[in-house]
Amino acid sequence: MYKANFDLTGKVAVVTGGGRGIGRALAEGLAYAGADVVLTARTEEQVKIAAMEISQSTGRRTLGISCDVTDKDSIDAVVGKVIRDFGRIDILVNNAGTSVRHGALDLTEDEWDQVIDTNFKSVFLMSQAVGRHMVKQKYGRIVNIASVASELTLAYGTPYGPSKAGVVHLTRQMANEWAQHGVTVNAISPWFFKTSLNEKALENDEFRTALERRTPMGRLGQLEELVAPVVFFCSDGAGYVTGQNLFVDGGTTHFGM
Asked: In what residue span(s) does the Ketoreductase domain sit (predicted)?
């Protein structure tokens, strides 16, 4: 029987930046698909509340834990705790991210480092720590949240696009290295979805209207529209898919004048 298997029952997932926005939505979606979920974020109170609410709504086991994804020691401590408490890690979603709205001439070195470390370095450090475990157990699913900015330039936000382009290439590199061990690595590249990271900018009617006009579907994305692609990549149904970058963008990257 040819039946697609997107059930994540029995799997343990870790989602970085899980306290709010895209990360929280993805964590909840993975839980509804059957996974037990560990949410990490720098703000401990926020991520613990998110974990509790997801557990209450889905019935899955959850844990909210503070983690600095730019710091190897913090990551190692979290990965060790998850393995001790849950026994394994089957899924990693690298979602933590940040941005600054400065052009190249105005950007400071500290701002550059902040964005590159949070968006790019963290993906390597988390994937390395969790990947060691996945390689040993001969199974794993890693999904990296990139951006259409990995392909398109932005008017402002110089370090953001390069950091996400790095994530896409790192995705392919790790996919190539770990495929033989049963570990798949894929990326999702969203267009504009309203989150705490961009909600202030989207309050500008002119800016929001320009985005909607730039999008062939004529609207911004809804967070639930990111859940299904991530669940697919994390499932056994995507067992032969690795090294891919899926644009979830309402057609934006193929827009023609």
From this structure: 11-194
**Beta carbons within 8 Å of 66's beta carbon, 6+ residues apart:** 40, 41, 42, 43, 44, 47
Q: What confidence tens digit (pLDDT) does each residue in 128-144 have?
A: 999 999 999 999 999 99
Query: Is the pTM of the predicted complex or chain greater than 0.85?
Result: yes
Among candidate residues 32, 139, 160, 240, the one labeled active-site is 160
Catalytic residue status for 160:
yes
- Average confidence (pLDDT) over 84-112: 94
Residue 60 lies in a domain: yes
Contact residues for 112 (Cβ-Cβ < 8 A; gap 6+)? 158, 159
Task: List the CATH number of the domain containing 140.
Answer: 3.40.50.720
User: Cβ distance 247 to 17 under 8 Å?
Assistant: no
| Number of domains making up the chain | 1
Structure tokens of 80? 């060790």
